[in-house]
Design goal:
The protein is an all-alpha fold. It is 62% helix and 0% strand. It has three domains: 52 residues; 65 residues; 77 residues.
Length: 239
């Protein structure tokens, strides 16, 4: 009789062949499948472990049990093993359902945390935009009343210049600030409006950092620049 080869069996699985496997063959097959089979286990215990795995993986279409003809321990053992297998199968299915429910619960909690964080960031962004708009109106109104027609800042219409602000570049944050400042100076934008202009184009991590600032910080361009550069772990002294 040829030696049992687990690789050949897995290439052409057969329920009839499986039922006739002896303990050594079952052990070899179990180890080939990386299953927890030990020499101290009884032959039908090994058979049950391997059988459950093969059924679960769809290798065998239905549970395999020791038939009376192949059992040396008596005709009633096949029903016993069948009963034990069904119990183990039910237990496995129950545990799998519990694991799935736990995965769903963790996924729902994670998604809810992400939604809550997004809501908070959006609310913070809206609050800052509103506060900065009020600040802009306050500055414009004060300049007009105090020195009508003499303040360049009071006549500065941010909405007409937003489209000229360079798009934010997360890959080169340091170079972006240098580029923005050159554009702002060339176009003679009042520096008190730089923070409001640049916040319109911030994206990604920089936008998230900006929304965490206080109104006073968010209104100061140098502060905004410093905090964002630190957020990207760039060396402030270089700028």
């Amino acid at each position: 009789m040829s030696k049992f080869e687990p690789e050949q069996f897995m290439a052409n699985p057969d329920s009839g062949v499986f039922e006739k496997l002896k303990k050594d063959d079952l052990m070899a097959l179990g180890k080939h499948l990386s299953l927890d089979v030990r020499t101290a286990m009884k032959v039908e215990e090994v058979r049950s472990v391997v059988s459950q795995h093969l059924v679960k993986e769809g290798v065998l279409n239905e549970p395999v049990f020791l038939t009376p003809a192949s059992s040396s321990d008596g005709p009633d053992l096949s029903e016993k093993y069948k009963y034990e297998f069904e119990l183990k199968k039910l237990e496995f299915e129950r545990e799998e359902r519990e694991r799935e429910r736990e995965r769903e619960r963790q996924r729902d909690e994670r998604e809810e945390r992400e939604r809550e964080k997004a809501r908070e960031l959006e609310l913070r962004r809206l609050e800052l935009e509103h506060a900065l708009e009020l600040k802009k109106l306050e500055l414009a109104g004060g300049s007009v009343e105090g020195h009508p027609g003499t303040s360049r800042s009071s006549s500065f219409d941010i909405t007409k210049h937003i489209r000229l602000v360079p798009p934010f570049q997360e890959q080169d944050v340091d170079k972006y600030f240098l580029h923005f400042e050159k554009v702002a100076e060339n176009l003679k934008w009042p520096k008190e409006h730089w923070a409001l202009l640049i916040q319109c184009v911030l994206t990604g991590k920089a936008q998230e950092i900006y929304t965490q600032l206080s109104l006073e910080q968010a209104s100061n361009y140098d502060t905004v620049k410093e905090v964002i550069l630190k957020g990207y772990e760039l060396v402030p002294e270089a700028y």
